[in-house]
Design brief:
Layout: H1 9-34, H2 39-72
Length: 73
Amino acid sequence: MAQDKRLGGWMRLWLGLSGIWSAIMALVVVMLIKDQMPASEIAVIVVIFWVVPPAILYGLGRLVYWIYKGFRG
């Protein structure tokens, strides 16, 4: 039996939103570099605003799935 390798709707949505988020954050980093901001401050900003929000959304999605799966039995 061949498995279907297409991405589901939620996965496509996640990838699309992550791509848009990455582009926005890249623009923010470019603007900060133009302002001659120190590299350490740029790194902290990137971690806080680029990595943390998608990780929180991913965790919430896993939590919702876990709850949904628990109610299905």
